[in-house]
Amino acid sequence: MKLITYALTGAFMLASTTAFAESHETPGENMQLMMLETALAAGDAEAGKKVFKKCKACHTLGEGAKSRTGPPLNNIIGAGLGEFEGFKYSKGMMAMSEEGIVWTIENLTAFLTKPRNFIAKTKMSYSGLKKEADRANLIAYLATFTTVEDE
Ligand code: HEC
Questions:
Q1: Ligand 1: which residues within 6 Å by Cβ?
Q2: Is residue 150 scored above 80 in pLDDT?
Q3: Would you tell me how many other CB atoms lie within 10 Å of the CB of residue 25?
Q4: How far lies 57's CA from each of 70, 93, 106, 108, in Å?
Q5: Which of 101, 112, 124, 134 to mutate to test the pocket of ligand 1 (most atoms within 8 A of CB)?
Q6: What is residue 19's predicted lDDT score, i.e. its pLDDT?
Q7: Burial category of 135 from C-beta neighbours within 10 Å (exposed 0-12, middle 13-18, buried 19 and up)
Q8: What is the Å distance from ligand 1's center to 72 Cα?
Q9: Residue 42 contacts residue 11 (beta carbons within 8 Å)
Q10: Of 25 and 105, which is predicted with more confidence?
Q11: Which atom of ligand 1 is the closest one to the Cα of 55?
């Protein structure tokens, strides 16, 4: 968590004007906003759209996204692991979910590099994205499908 905090400092400066414009925002929302800023700064969402082709067989995004082999990936950045209602996750994923682990950029990067190293016995049968740029671009693309709710 420390690492991500340091990495976020730059984005925090960028995001702070909007993040604190509304005094009723919770720290959770600010944190999610910072994650989004970081993701969008670190990768190229347009390039990430092409990388997402590797995920499309199992995952959907956008309006009307539904579960396929995997759950839809809207609002994934900053969300808790395994939170899409109605999807039957692996026991490994549920155990981490119960620990309160969140899809930070750091965790997403680790999972996408080699899913089985991050969650032993995950149901996601995908070998992983080897290239750092592919991961960063993909995460930036996912960020464009994440909205921070301002209630
Ligand atoms: C062969 C099907 C398949 C492919 C390809 C695949 N996934 Fe998955 N994905 C799954 C399944 C199944 C799960 C649920 C894993 C579990 O329960 O352990 C999952 C889970 C996830 C989660 C966690 C979702 C949540 O609700 O917590 C993320 C994030 C994710 N995948 C991203 C990706 C990305 C990005 C790609 C492309 C690089 C990808 N996946 C490729 C099947 C797939």
A1: 54-55, 57-59, 69-71, 73, 76, 81-84, 89-90, 92-93, 112, 119, 122-126, 129, 138
A2: no
A3: 18
A4: 9, 20, 24, 19
A5: 124
A6: 41
A7: buried
A8: 9
A9: no
A10: 105
A11: 37
What is the rounded CA–CA span in Å between residue 38 and residue 139? Answer: 10
Pocket test for ligand 1, best of 52, 53, 56, 58 (most atoms within 8 A of CB): 58
**28/131: higher pLDDT:** 131
- 55 CA distance to ligand 1 middle (Å): 7
Higher pLDDT, 13 or 130: 130
124 CB-contact burial (10 Å; exposed 0-12 / middle 13-18 / buried 19+): buried
Note the pLDDT of residue 14.
46
Task: Compute the distance between CA of residue 132 and CA of residue 75 in angstroms, rounded to an integer.
Answer: 22
At 28 the pLDDT is 82
Q: Name the residue with tokens 């995460």.
A: 139
